[in-house]
Amino acid sequence: MTDPNAHRPYFELPVEARTLLTIFARAATFRFGVRPLGDAELETWLANVWNSKRLTPSSLTNPTRLTLLIKEHMSSSFRELPQAAVSPDEDVA
Q: How far apart are CA 5 and CA 75, in angstroms?
C-alpha cells in the first residue's frame, strides 16, 4: 500500500487523480480569467506545479487548497484575458 502523505510524481498518479486536477485547472482558467490552455500545455503545467510543490495524493482531498494553489501559479504563469463583456454576476438571457 502506498502512503497517501508521500509525494508521488505527477505522471505516476492514477489517471483519476490527474483528471481531477485537470478539472480544477480548467475551472480555474475560466474563473480567474486566464487564457485557455491546450491539453498538452495544461498537462505539462500541472506536472510542473505538482512536482515542484511535492504534492501528495492526500492533497487531492482539499479542493480549496488546490484551487488557491492553481490560482497562485496561473496568475504568475499565464497572461490574463481582458475582462468579459458580461459580468459573471449578470443574468444572460
A: 27
In angstroms, rounded to a whole number, what is the distance separating the alpha carbons of residues 33 and 77? Answer: 13
- The residues, any chain, with a CB within 8 Å of residue 47's CB and separated by 6 or more, are 9, 10, 11
Residue 7: how many other CB atoms lie within 10 Å: 15
CB atoms within 10 A of CB 14: 10
Residue spans of alpha helices (H) in the chain: 15-31, 39-52, 63-77
52-82 pLDDT per residue, tens: 999 998 998 988 888 888 888 887 776 554 4
Which of the four pLDDT bands, split at 50, 70 and 90, describes residue 83?
Answer: very low
Angle at alpha carbon of residue 52, lines to 49 and 55, rounded to 5° = 75
